[in-house]
């Protein structure tokens, strides 16, 4: 792991937003250390990014809840400094918080809150000056969702952790910020129903569309992270920024939902979604109109 290039360490970097962030930072020339629990997926991700971009991408099998193994992360970094840390690993339970067993609740907090803290503490002496840390939270931290109650609580705590770390590390020339993605394709791998160990991607046609008119993609959040870790964001410290297509902006006059009867693949091979817009009136029945939403690539 030696070399003149900048180094980004990304937990949860083998799928979803973490993987999209790794690919985006590689475009900016960052070498990568990807952390994740699935060795096969992680090694494949590192190899593909290296082959595509020419950067050095390494993988370390790592579970966020296993605190005794965090020194292995520092050992893999070696003598290099860490320019960027992105804490993207997360887990959750599709269950109301009142019904969540305390042991499960503690596990969610351990992965989603204590894990990022432990990672920062482990690498604190390795951070470059200036350096940047980004914690991946959720729009559920801004407005909790009853169906994923413990997850919502943990992400609200993560937002506050980000603010406190921002205060603690600002004097060390390390900026800390939090990013709060909304619904992002293909869905969170470890936001699980009771009894499951890994979740299949959702049927995105069942997701409500945000006011922007399309679902989020990992690249949307990755672009913000690439900005936040750059010198252009030097005065952004302790912020929690939504990337949700306007979903948390308020209650819109029109509610957009995917229309499965008009979804297809366009000539360029990207997904072309159409939305059914329901105009809501307090005095009349909803009136439906159909228009194409913005297309997004897979």
**What is the number of domains?**
2
User: What's the CATH architecture name of the largest domain?
Assistant: 3-Layer(aba) Sandwich
* Oligomeric state as shown: single chain
Number of helices: 6
Task: Going across the biggest sheet, name each strand in turn.
Answer: 3-2-1-4-6-7-11
Could you give the order of the helices and strands?
A: EHEHEHEEHEHEEEEHEEEEEE
Q: What radius of gyration results from the CA coordinates?
A: 20 Å
Largest sheet: 7 strands, parallel
Report the average pLDDT across residues: 85
CATH level 1 class label of the largest domain: Alpha Beta
Q: What structural class is derived from the secondary structure elements?
A: alpha/beta
Q: Which percent bin holds the helix content?
A: 25-40%
Sheet-strand content, in percent, reads: 15-25%
**Regions with pLDDT < 50 over 5+ consecutive residues?**
260-298
- What is the overall silhouette? globular
The CATH topology of the largest domain comes to Rossmann fold
Count of DSSP strands: 16
CATH superfamily of the largest domain: NAD(P)-binding Rossmann-like Domain
User: Termini separation (Å)?
Assistant: 31 Å
């Amino acid at each position: 792991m030696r070399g003149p290039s900048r180094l980004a360490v990304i937990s949860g970097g083998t799928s979803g937003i973490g993987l999209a962030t790794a690919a985006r930072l590689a475009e900016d020339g960052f070498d990568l250390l990807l952390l994740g629990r699935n060795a096969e997926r992680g090694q494949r991700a590192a190899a593909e990014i290296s082959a595509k971009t020419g950067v050095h991408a390494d993988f370390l099998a790592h579970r966020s809840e296993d605190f005794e193994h965090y020194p292995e992360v520092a050992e893999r970094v070696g003598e290099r400094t860490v320019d960027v840390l992105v804490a993207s690993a997360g887990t959750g339970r599709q269950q109301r918080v009142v019904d969540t067993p305390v042991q499960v609740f503690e596990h969610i907090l351990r992965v989603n809150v204590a894990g990022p803290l432990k990672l920062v503490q482990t690498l604190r002496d390795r951070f470059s000056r200036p350096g940047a840390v980004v914690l991946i939270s959720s729009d559920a931290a801004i407005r909790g969702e009853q169906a994923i109650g413990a997850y919502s609580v943990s992400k609200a705590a993560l937002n506050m952790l980000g603010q406190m770390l921002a205060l603690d590390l600002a004097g060390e020339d390390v900026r800390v910020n939090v990013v709060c993605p909304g619904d992002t394709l293909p869905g969170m791998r470890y936001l699980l129903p009771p009894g499951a160990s890994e979740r299949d991607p959702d049927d995105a046609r069942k997701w409500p569309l945000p006011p922007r008119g399309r679902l989020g993609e990992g690249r949307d959040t990755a672009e913000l992270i690439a900005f936040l870790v750059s010198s252009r964001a030097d005065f952004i410290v302790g912020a929690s920024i939504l990337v949700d297509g306007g979903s948390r902006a308020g209650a819109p006059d029109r509610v957009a939902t995917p229309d499965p009867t008009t979804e297809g693949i366009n000539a360029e091979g990207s997904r072309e979604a159409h939305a059914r817009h329901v105009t809501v009136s307090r005095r009349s029945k909803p009136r439906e109109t159909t228009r194409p939403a913005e297309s997004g690539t897979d």
